[in-house]
Amino acid sequence: MKLVKVNLLSADKHVTTEGRTGPAPVKFFLSPLLTFAIFVSSFLFGRMTLSQESTFSIAELDNIPILGKMRQLMISPDRKLAGEQDDRINILLLGMGGEGHEGPFLTDTIMVASVKPGTNKVALLSIPRDLIVPLPKFGWRKVNSANAFGELQNSGRGADFTRTILEGLLGLDIPYYVRVDFEGFKSVIDSVGGIDVYVERNFTDYTYPTRNYGIQMISFKKGWQHLSGEEALKFARSRHGSNGEGSDFARAQRQQKVITALKDKLLSAKTFKNPATIANTMAALQSNISTNLQLGEILRLARMAQKLQQTDIVHKIIDNGKDSPLTDSNLGGAYVLVPKNDDWTGLRQIASNVFDLAKPDESAPTPPPAAAQPLQKARVEIQNGTGKSGQARVTATTLQNAGFQIVKIGNADSFGYPDSVIYDLTKGKKTAELEKLKAALNAKEGKRMPTALADKDAAGVDFVVIIGKSALNGS
Fold it and tell me: CB-hemisphere CA count at 13 Å for 416?
């Protein structure tokens, strides 16, 4: 491997698609068992309960392009997957920003999910985004740029291009890929009411990116946390956290936690029994996912996923430790990872023997009976101070997805509020909920409560939100 005159594409640079012909790329993001876990929910619910509600839920699939033939497949044999004959099915999982994000086609998450039907086990192998690899026609580049360069060559083929690169890199047959974007990731988690994740240590990231290319501070506390879609995305994406959470390897571990938690929630009995949740989850994915899995293959994976327990999923993160086949390097001013002694054998051995080398996630203690349940939702009244009709309802949807209970919406005393403001009627008894509310709305806390709001706490209201005009432009 020659590492000279390499024009690396930095993970923080934007890749444009100027000059490219063909239709605009479809939006996509991150998840492994996500796809077939969703399908097992719909499949088993429809097959096992045959109720009027389940029939309606399945019929709704006709309105979702990627699932238009699902009802026919419900009564059809599923389709064997490539790799079953060798007792190993490999699926590449890619997560990217998508439209509206810097470097929309750069992949934040690169993971190979391997399914072993014979033992009902799944192994998740995280590939570091800073590993440099040879890309045909483009030279040596960071592996997280493969999807972007694939899109430059042929719109909609970035994931497949990345798949072929990693097949050669790891010495594996990887016949399938799943690619999802940030919006799809958040929507799926919100559609199932959030996920429960064990945070191993307190950490703060002071430079987490915002949608308008700025930065913000985020923080997480040790212990079991119930996360909304937005919170789970921040937890999975954070790259500069304190207390040992500032590396890509720590981030890869968090991403695997999120994926496992989402699988647990999607396969829960509560999800099975709720046709609306199933339909909402599928709708959340229809414009945010790209995969070459056929529906019959997805159904077969769904049946396998239905049997999975948390201990059946093992995890392996390739890092830069002393026993790793990779080492740190610097090329053209960019941090990169390269194989030690230019030898790819060690990386391929890990990929080949991942079921023997990987371990279950044993960092999270068993939660007490109520730990995995969301706390009582904070009760919020929303008042529209923008003058734009319907803004209170838009905000209500946002806050419901974030885990708040909306008790009332209406107009404010005037339409002259420049910024959104929150009044805390709990007198500081729900500080965590207040901070979550401020972050969700980019709002400030009102210091002097209007007299008209003073008695609302007796009416079962924790917070009053007045939406200001700044909410109309997302500022």
Answer: 2
Beta bridge partners of 260: none
Write out the two tokens for 77: 């044999």
Residue with tokens 């490539």: 82
Q: Give the strand order in the sheet containing 379-384.
A: 405-411, 379-384, 463-467, 421-424, 444-445
**Mean pLDDT of successive 10-residue segments in the chain (475 residues)?**
40 38 35 42 39 38 44 53 93 81 79 90 88 91 92 90 94 92 78 84 88 81 87 87 84 81 66 57 66 82 73 82 88 86 92 86 51 60 89 85 82 89 86 85 84 59 90 68
The residues facing 424 across adjacent strands are 463
For the chain, domain boundaries: 33-360, 379-473
- The correct answer on CATH 3.30.565.10 for the domain covering 33-360 is no
Which two structure tokens, joined as six digits, stand for 247? 């590396």
Cα angle for residues 161, 162, 165 (degrees, 5° grid): 90
- Provide the pLDDT for residue 282: 62
Tell me if the pTM is above 0.90: no
Residue indicated by tokens 């959104």: 420
Res 71: pLDDT: 45
The separation between CA 294 and the C-alpha centre of its own chain, rounded to angstroms, equals 22
User: Which pLDDT value is given to residue 313?
Assistant: 80
Question: What is the rounded distance in angstroms from the CA atom of residue 74 to the CA atom of residue 299?
Answer: 9
CATH, domain range 379-473? 3.30.70.2390
Two tokens, residue 277: 């949740």
